[in-house]
Structure formats: structure tokens, C-alpha cells
Design goal:
Elements (H helix, E strand, L loop, with lengths): L11 E5 L8 E6 L2 E7 L12 H11 L9 E5 L9 E5 L16 H20 L16 H16 L5 H9 L11 E3 L8 E3 L6 E4 L6 E3 L1 H9 L25 H12 L8 H24 L7 H5 L2 H14 L4
């Protein structure tokens, strides 16, 4: 740390953050301040998963633009140091909000926080990825075509059961991929608990967890964010049935209008295909967690409960697929 992180002074202590099933993340406290270490999981993993080097490249490119990300300090790809590649970034102090209904805020504060989330997403999609050195960060061609292929392969590589709805999705999604008309940096997991807000104002200090980021269709992020409006509020990000003037949470129509205004769009297409894809992708992610849990490599104690969600996610994705025209 002293050799590679400017200004670092020990001694240090560390503590693993609770939550999350992907790349294990630790808070490091030292005489020189607080830092975050994020590493690949130990043990066998799928080749394209847990790419901490890609995460680091992305935040290293975004930080100088003023987009809210943690300051990157260094990447170590030598897995002999702690047993896996890792990187160090600053510890951004602020509020992490887990419940999309924002129960501790007033209606005007809720509105302002949702506006900040939409505006920050629009800002991300407006960044000139070529100008910040990310022209090779993603592959050319249709983003969703690539992603459907990727998550199908990921699901197959970690598959443990035969699920009828999953097989229907694997047949339906690739042949109905929407046309892509724009390319931008895509976060890949843009949700409220992947943001750190200022303590006393509706301002995002840092967007976190860039593991799934790439270049692609910006509607991927918007549709993923929009999933909150079709998801039950169960203490997580869902706000279905909780929107409008009384709560201060904007409706999906209002959020869509604001996003389109900020990004110069006339509108967005029907979102049901995108919702189906999002749940299919989540199914693939959770299936990977299930396989790692069965293999003894999952990164936290909630992995067993998470693993049980795979069939339900497949069924929910198929319901949206039917709304999008699946037979």
C-alpha cells in the first residue's frame, strides 16, 4: 500500500462490507485515511466474470471528467499478493439508501433524490467514451444481442437444474432483439444502493459497482432503472404502487420524460422486452451465485437464499416476454 498508494501511512485495519455476492469488498482504515479494497473471489470462477481490472479502468477514466466515482488509487493484478487481483479506491463517506421508497425522507426530498438519479444516469450516457480513452471498452454491434448471448452462456456454464421458463427465454430473446440507435458507457447495475449520496442533500457523491459496465445501448441502463416501477417495494429498490404527489416519488412516465429531455430523445420504446431481458440477466447472475454456493465459493452467508430465486426469476422474465409478444 505504501509503495503504490500516494500518501498512505499505516498501520491498517480492515473489515469486509456486508451484502453483495460479487466481488468481495473491504473497508481499510489507516493513519492516512479510509480506503476501499475490492478483489476477485478466491477459487475457480467463470473466465469473464469478476473483472476488477475492467472496473478499475472505467473509474480511472471517469474520475477526471467530474462524473461521481470514487478516486482510484491503484490496481494489482498479481494474485500472489492477497490471493486474487484487487484494486484500491477512496472510501467515499455519505449515505447509502437501500429502500427505494425512501421512508426517512419527505416527499420533496424523494422527488429531488430521484431527479438526481435520473440526471446522473443521463450524464453518464452523455460522456464521450472515445475522448476518455474507452473506445475499446466494449465490442461493436448490437449490445443486447451480445448480452443475451453472454448471459445464455453464463447460465449454461453454471446451470444446475432444468427450468422450462429459462429455456423459453433462451429461444425468445435472441430472435426479438431491439434495434440499437445509440452507444454509450453502460453501468450495467444502476440502482439506488449502488450510489452514495451526500449526507444532507440530494447529490450523488459516487456511483459504485462497475463490474458489469461496458459500451452499449443506454436504454439498457434506463430500462434496468425503470424496473423499480414494476417491482414490489419490499425494503429494496422497488416502488410499484408508491409513486405520485403524495409520496413524492415520480411516476415512471415522469422519470421517462425527464430522462428523454436530458438525453435528447423523443421517447423510449415499449419496455416489456427490456424488463424480460433484465430478469433473464439477473437469473444468470443468481445462477452463478448458486453454482458458487454449491461449490463452496460464494462470498457471503445469504448465498443459499439468493440461489433459491432462480426459478422465480425465470418465470417473472417469461411473463414480461409474453407482454412483449412471446407465444
Amino acid at each position: 500500500m505504501r509503495e503504490h498508494v500516494a500518501g498512505f501511512e499505516g498501520p491498517l485495519t480492515y473489515e469486509k462490507f456486508a451484502g453483495g455476492q460479487s466481488n468481495p469488498t473491504y473497508r481499510i482504515d489507516a493513519a492516512s485515511g479510509a480506503y476501499v479494497l475490492r478483489r476477485k473471489p478466491f477459487g475457480p470462477i467463470l473466465p469473464s466474470a469478476h473483472a476488477v481490472d475492467r472496473e478499475y479502468r472505467l473509474i480511472d477514466a471517469l474520475h477526471p471528467t467530474g462524473f461521481p466515482v470514487a478516486r482510484p488509487y491503484g490496481l494489482c493484478e498479481d494474485d500472489t499478493i492477497i490471493g486474487a487481483p484487487f484494486y484500491i479506491m477512496e472510501m467515499v463517506e455519505g449515505r447509502t439508501l437501500w429502500d427505494g421508497t425512501l421512508p426517512d425522507l419527505t416527499p420533496p426530498e424523494r422527488t429531488a433524490h430521484y431527479h438526481a438519479m435520473v440526471d446522473t444516469l443521463a450524464d453518464l450516457h452523455a460522456i464521450d467514451y472515445e475522448a476518455v480513452g474507452l473506445g475499446s471498452y466494449g465490442k461493436p454491434g448490437n449490445y443486447f444481442e451480445r448480452q443475451v448471448g453472454r448471459w445464455t452462456k453464463q447460465y449454461r456454464a453454471s446451470q444446475t437444474d432444468d427450468i422450462e421458463a429459462a429455456e423459453k427465454l433462451i429461444e425468445f430473446l435472441p430472435r426479438t432483439v431491439p434495434k440499437q440507435d445509440r452507444t454509450s458507457i453502460v453501468h450495467g447495475d444502476y440502482r439506488i444502493d449502488n450510489m452514495i449520496f451526500a449526507a444532507q442533500e440530494p447529490r450523488i457523491l459516487a456511483v459504485l459497482d462497475w463490474e458489469l459496465s461496458t459500451l452499449g445501448d443506454p436504454l439498457a441502463d434506463f430500462a434496468y432503472f425503470a424496473m423499480n416501477w414494476v417491482t414490489e417495494p419490499e425494503g429494496r429498490s422497488g416502488v410499484m404502487g408508491r409513486t405520485g404527489p403524495e409520496t413524492g416519488i415520480p411516476t415512471l412516465e415522469a422519470v421517462t420524460e425527464r430522462y428523454c429531455e436530458k438525453t435528447g430523445r423523443d421517447g423510449v420504446p415499449d419496455l416489456n422486452w427490456y424488463f424480460s431481458y433484465n430478469l433473464f440477466r439477473l437469473m444468470g447472475i443468481v445462477q452463478g451465485i448458486k453454482k458458487r454456493w454449491l461449490d463452496g465459493n460464494a462470498s457471503n452467508a445469504k448465498a443459499e437464499a439468493t440461489a433459491a430465486r432462480v426459478p422465480g426469476l425465470a418465470e417473472a422474465a417469461w411473463e414480461f416476454a409474453k407482454k412483449a409478444g412471446a407465444g
